[in-house]
Structure formats: C-alpha cells, structure tokens
C-alpha cells in the first residue's frame, strides 16, 4: 500500500487543482529522494485543499512569489570624483559631409592639406569653362556637434543622451610655435588684446599671400554661430577699377563721379608690376555656390594684359610666400603645422572629450599630381 503524505501547495499547485480538479492533479507523483509512489484516494474538496499543511523529511514545498524576500543587486556607488568627471561628458564631433571622399565625423581631427594638389586643380579649372555650382574654396570642417553622453557604471560604457549644435566655440594655439605659424600663413588677420581689436594687413609685404585660412559662422536656429566651419580660400589684397582702358588703376575710394569716365571695369591689384593688375574681362556676374563668391571671378572672370587668370597670379604669390615662410622639411618640400584646441564656455563643468585639430599645410612642387581626391588627407 502506498504511503500517505501531506504536502503544502504552492500558489501554482493550488491554481492547478482549482482549474483541473484534484483527482487529475493528484493522480500520481514521485519524489526524487524515494522510490515510492504516492496517491490520493479521496478527491478533496476546497476545504481539504486549504487544510493541507504537512511536510515530509528531506522535502519542503517551494515558496510562492508573495512569500519570498526581495533582494537587490548590490552596485557600489561611484566616488564623488567619478561622478563629477565621468558620469556625464560632452563628446565633440567635427564633421564634413558632401557625399565625397573627404566625408568624416571625428572628435579629434588630423588633416593634411596638399597645397600643390590644390593649386594644380585650380589652374586646371581656368581652361575647363565656368561652372556655377563648383566649390573652389577648400572646406576643411563643415560644422560641429556636441553629444552629451552618460556612463553605465557596471560595464563602463557610454550612451548618447543628448546633443546640440547651439555652441560658439573659440580656438587656442597649443604652443607658441603654432601661433607663429598661423601668423605666417595669413597675410591678413585680427588679434585681440583684451577688448581691443587689432587688424593686421601684410598684403603688400615682399612675400605675401592671397591665401586666407580661418573659421566661419553658420546659421542655426536663427543664430549666427561662429567657429563652426574651417576653410582655405583666396582673397585679393586690394579691389578697385581700371578706367578708360585696362591699365589705369584707381582704388575704390578714389573713383569719384562715375560719369567722368567713358569706361569703368572692376579690377584687382596684386602688386606694383604691370602684370599684377587684373581686370574683369567682360561684364558678367560669375555666380557661384562657393561660400567665397569672389573665387568664381578670380578663376574665370579676371585677367591681366597677358590673358593670365587672376587665380594663377594669386597662386604664384602664394608659392613665393610658402618658400619664404614655411619650413623646408626635405629638399624642395615645405610644411607648416598648426595645432589648435577648441574652447567652450558654459559646459556645466562637464568634461569635454575631443576638440583637438591638427593641420599640416604641405607644398611639394616635385610631387606627382594625383588629382582632386588627394588635396585633403584625413586621419
């Protein structure tokens, strides 16, 4: 005869009895600690089920969920220093997106500008015909985003939780040498001594350049935000007019009454030589999508009396400038490194990750010209 045993039902067991009936539920059961069969000879009613409370050696019924004691995974809280420095941070994203080989999204930017490739490409455009939609300036950075991240203290990973472009960054030179190199690169620049603004123009020094490198603004949310893009382009040192022909140059402020002249042409002067005077060869607007609208005119619109394009004249001046001011790192190869660090105010004391920019301007007239895609090298 089978032994009798009283068992305490779990909630699951009680629900099973209620739904399927005691006879079906309790027909047979075997315990792992004994080779004995147990059965219920009488079908209990609900009152019988509620009164089952017994137990058996080496066996205890499993507790129900409502009887169990809740436990919490113990994670040691981060130290105050970790909370301040690592719990949240800003990640810098420099980006450039034009569906081309120069696209990138980087927190720190290392970029080489091969000036010999750039000059060669611009000179080739002179003979290719006017193109309104061509960007002839070099855009080095399209814009900047800040991404706010939060750290998971269990696996130390970072998750993006917010982002913004509504910032106005400034840049500082990493070393004093970087500042000197910046002043060598541009013939025109602005310096601030406290609140005093000092403009410097060395456009007609012996070795000047029409190259213009710097940072510009973008329009976001109705605000013009400075420091979001970076570019390299050309800008003529002085604009004016030629009157009654193509050799009599006067500056903008000395034109006087236009009715005094039979013919007036916009003109640009690069220096004191006859070949340094360039004039607009035909009355045409050279519209362009380039952020520097002057570039279309410089390439296709202005010529000197020898028919040479203004862009060629400015490139020649830039080459002389480079060979005088840049460092000759190997035979007939010149380089100018420039390292900058981005600065931001009002970051709520959060750590900023990234924001370092390394430029290297290279001019190698003996290099094999590879074409447009080799102008910028992004690392």
Based on CA inertia axes, which overall geometry fits? elongated
Calculate the terminal CA-CA distance, rounded to whole Å: 85 Å
Helix count from the secondary structure assignment:
8
Return the average pLDDT rounded to an integer. 81
* Poorly predicted residue ranges: 1-5, 27-75
- Sheet-strand content, in percent, reads 25-35%
What does this structure look like?
The protein has 379 residues and is α+β, with helices and mostly antiparallel strands. The chain folds into two domains: 1-71, no CATH class; 110-139 and 167-378, no CATH class. The chain is 19% helix and 34% strand. The chain contains eight helices and 23 strands. Strands 5, 9, 19, 20, 22 and 23 form a six-stranded mixed sheet that branches. Strands 3, 4, 7, 8 and 21 form a five-stranded mixed sheet that branches. A five-stranded antiparallel sheet has the order 15-14-16-17-18. Strand 14 (238-243) and strand 15 (249-251) form a beta hairpin.
